[in-house]
Design goal:
about 150 residues, alpha/beta, Ribose 5-phosphate Isomerase B, Chain: A, five-stranded parallel sheet, 6 helices, 5 strands, globular
Length: about 150
């Protein structure tokens, strides 16, 4: 797979370590992250990775910040992106199996390297089930258009 990975300043060390893991797993990695401890705005990094997923120049995206929450919120603003924060193997598996998650957001500080590795391995190896879940994912995609066309306040 071709995977874009990005982090803010709080996820630099984790991102660099995970790039090595992804490459050892045989994936092509596009590094979109910050490289120092100078504070950067996580929405900018999330948008860079999510834009690549949205326009299909990469297959999937991975984001890291302190909690992973802000990155997921920002990434979900781009069309076709389904981003969520996963904290364990179960949420990683179900995010793929039922939601066809294409952007994984991780905490760089609240979970350790071993758990991060397990989450990524699970997330990358779990297929989307399709079936009734495809119908639900299609409804999520339809919300992008519906919300764009909805009048303000209503």
């Amino acid at each position: 797979m071709r995977i874009a990975i990005g982090s803010d300043h709080r996820g630099v060390a984790a991102r660099k370590r995970l790039i090595g893991l992804l490459e050892r797993m045989g994936h092509e990695v596009i590094d979109c992250g910050s490289d120092g401890d100078q504070a950067v705005d996580y929405p900018d990094i999330a948008a860079d990775v999510a834009r690549r997923v949205s326009n299909a120049t990469v297959d999937r995206g991975i984001l890291l910040c302190c909690t992973g929450v802000g990155m997921a919120i920002a990434a979900n603003k781009l069309p076709g992106v389904r981003a969520a924060t996963c904290h364990d193997e179960v949420t990683a598996e179900m995010s793929r199996r039922h939601n066809d998650l294409n952007v994984l957001s991780l905490s760089a500080e609240l979970i350790g390297p071993e758990v991060q590795d397990k989450i990524i391995r699970t997330w990358l190896s779990t297929p989307f089930e399709g079936g009734r879940h495809a119908r639900r994912v299609a409804k999520i995609a339809a919300l992008e258009t519906a919300c764009k066309d909805a009048p303000a306040g209503g």
